[in-house]
Amino acid sequence: MTESLPIRRALLSVSDKTGIVEFARFLADRGAEILSTGGTAKAIRDAGIPVKDVSEHTGFPEILDGRVKTLVPQVHGGILGRRDEASHLAQMDEHAIAPIDLVAVNLYPFEATVAKGAAFEDCIENIDIGGPAMIRSAAKNFSGVVVCTEPAHLARVTAEIQAEGGTSLALRKELAAAAYARTAAYDAAISGWFAGQLGQEFPPRLAVAGILKQTLRYGENPHQQAGFYLSGASRAGIATARQVQGKELSYNNLNDTDAAYECVAEFDKPAIVIVKHANPCGVAEGADLASAWDKALLCDPVSAFGGIVAANRKLDAAAAEKIAAIFTEVVIAPDADEAAMAIFAKKKNLRLLLTGGLPDPVSPGLFFKSVAGGFLAQSRDAGRVTAETLKIVTQRAPTEAEIADLLFAFRVCKHVKSNAIIYAKGMATVGIGAGQMNRVESSRIAAWKSEAAAKAAGLSEPLAKGSVVASDAFFPFADGLETAAAAGVTAVIQPGGSIRDAEVIAAADAAGLAMVFTGMRHFRH
Fold it and tell me: Which of 344, 298, 249 is nearest to 455 (CA)?
């Protein structure tokens, strides 16, 4: 069927009743019979619109506390019967099954029920059965039935009926595809919740679903296409952010901003993270955001140009003035005061994102990466070491100040591409080496950056002198540590576990360094 099909009979049964009364009135005014159930029927009836209860239509009462009300032949036969198949029409006539031309159903709020922490039995009762069955039936028979699963679909159907007198095959196909996507996402939410109830972090079948928030201009490169999907998780960040100003975010903006915000959430004191190409190029804690910015920028002012800035506190005017002084692509923070927003407003190309909160760096969750023929899934790197868990392996123990810097540097390590080397001093990065194929090169690059930053700041000594160094994984040889020692570090933090640990410890002792093992590595590929 390709012609426009009129709506003679519609079944409306929705959890989200946005627009449903107006839609029912629109259909009724055009002579359609309205079938409905429960609260939807009551809302329509209270508006003075003629409506027939499904139980009256089918001659079969709702039973089992409403669990069975639409799972009957009079409903599914009316939806599934093909209008272009004579045998179907004959059987429908024989069994007094009236065709249903439109199904508007949105589902019990299972996801919202789980999100509010409802009890197990309440979650079970909010698993819709009849709704998905009707949606799938209507979508399968799109040649003769139109299905609406979102309030926005009602407006589209209304507009087409007004223009054409009925629904087109093109629209019915499109809404059928949306219907199957909705039921797939619904089942994914249920299966994921059930797996969690059973303690199955990696169940035999893992279903993943998302809602398109934004079709992006292009992907990582202009010849690639991309979209931004929401998983439904409530984690504060780019998915929850309100964009106050600036042009549309790109794929790279979103990726880098996420990296920056996840990193800045690691710190308890006011902190600033500056990110370029998904790697931090400056991280610092301070007495306030303005002082944290100064310390973070000092680490690598060249890379900071055109970067992403994340703050873990409400932005104020002092911080905003400093951030806005250089070209910045995106600023993300939990909030900003009016004075800060006024300052950023002068930079029309700067995107300002306010999230309303910070992500919990130690909360559980899954991380996905696509590979040929499938995808990898792993738990989020929520590992964190404390002073109490450190193992001192050298003759000299680190001072309290060194321990604070070591723990700070190791937290930064978690967010830097491997191989990662972090020099830190005074709760600020002073040299970052990222993404190299061997740890020695990362150490050299971090040291070189500290020299370049010192020169740019007019300082006589490299920033790394007197700093501590963190490595995301063990030093396989002493050369990486010796490179750091040559840069002027006083203490080292690393996971340990190499077959040459003794050699590395001996090199640290020979250089007079304090070194601690964490027993935890932070690879990030």
Answer: 298
